[in-house]
Design brief:
binds zinc ion, alpha/beta, TIM Barrel, 16 helices
Length: 341
């Protein structure tokens, strides 16, 4: 197991499902809390932060998450968060990440959309130079905020159109937030060239995944794990090569799945679905992308070759250009070949 952990740690990887604020490391949160000392309940001391991040239950997780959102008050905060997230990813040998950002949360709290987009773009370019990682953005609608948030997210995406923006998403709760109502916004985003990547089938059944495919034109699905209960849907996903962004630890922490041993990942893989392994909100769920690869290896009974195949599948499912996909796949192949000696 130690050998496999070492193999995973140095394996070149791609991350396709990770949230911007949800990736705020204790180090980033401490820095932001210090900038706003006296005006936030969040402690600025990293040791105290470990306790602050120990969630009692899901409601407490949401409370802590929102207190971190509240630390993002000006473009400098946005820059610090984004640059720090890139550092954490690059440290795990992530070469390319599609980061889910919810601009509505920040613009509705008073950061002007142009300044917000300028901050993420500047941080993206600096991270590329500092850490050798390529970042792209998925702007997502916070579903719980309804259609006004959808309209505003689309407006920001299309009017600002930052260079790193490639896709349009939908997050937040699924229960009580039907996917089809967002069709007009996804239609307009897709018409403008953005790829469709909604969350679906995380906490609700397979019908939500069908809705995401049929109404929102989903090209990949955030989570999608409830597809395991619908053989017809599994066959459809496998045949169309529509990838699922699976985040095992997140599913246990949010109680979408009772335990890792009951996670449907093996059934999805057996059905031939293109599965990618991701971390969702890693520091908040007490995980890392490396940990998620280790979990997947255990659930699927994989050794180094199987783990390298998961990394290649994530490249395949990404929205990278074909030339970049080939280059990254070759890097994974070369690493696996040397490690196998
Ligand atoms: Zn997510």
């Amino acid at each position: 197991m130690t050998d496999l952990s070492a193999f995973i740690a140095d394996l070149p990887k791609v991350e396709l499902h990770v949230h911007h604020v949800g990736s705020a490391s204790p180090r980033a949160v401490a820095e932001l809390a210090a900038r706003h000392a006296g005006r936030t309940p969040v402690p600025a001391d990293p040791a105290a932060l470990a306790d602050y991040f120990a969630f009692r239950d899901f409601a407490h997780f949401i409370e802590v998450y929102l207190s971190v959102v509240d630390l993002i008050r000006d473009p400098e905060d946005v820059w610090i968060l984004t640059h720090e997230v890139a550092r954490q990813l690059a440290r795990q040998q992530v070469r390319y990440a599609e980061l889910t950002i919810t601009p509505y949360s920040h613009v509705s709290r008073g950061i002007p959309a142009p300044a917000f987009c300028e901050a993420i773009e500047d941080a993206r370019k600096r991270a590329e130079a500092d850490f050798g990682i390529a970042l792209r953005w998925c702007f997502d609608i916070p579903g719980e905020a309804g259609l006004p948030a959808a309209e505003e997210t689309l407006r920001i995406a299309l009017e600002e159109r930052p260079d790193g923006l490639i896709s349009f998403g939908l997050g937040g709760p699924e229960i009580g937030v039907p996917r089809p109502q967002f069709k007009p916004y996804f239609d307009r985003a897709r018409a403008a060239g953005l790829r469709s990547v909604p969350h679906a089938g995380e906490t609700t059944g397979p019908q939500t995944v069908w809705d995401a495919l049929r109404d929102l034109g989903a090209e990949r699905i955030g989570h999608g794990i409830s597809a395991a209960a619908d053989p017809e849907l599994l066959a459809h996903l496998a045949q169309r090569r529509i990838a699922l962004e699976v985040c095992p630890t997140s599913n246990v922490r949010t109680r979408a799945v009772a335990s890792l041993d009951e996670h449907p990942l093996p059934r999805l893989v057996e059905a031939g679905v293109l599965v990618t392994i991701n971390s969702d909100d890693p520091p908040m769920f007490g995980t890392t992308l490396d940990d998620e690869y280790a979990v997947a290896a255990r659930l699927l009974g994989l050794g180094p070759d199987g783990v390298a195949a998961l990394a290649r599948d994530a490249v395949t499912a990404s929205f990278l250009e074909p030339g970049e996909k080939a280059r990254l796949t070759a890097e994974i192949d070369a690493y696996a070949a040397v490690a196998a000696r």
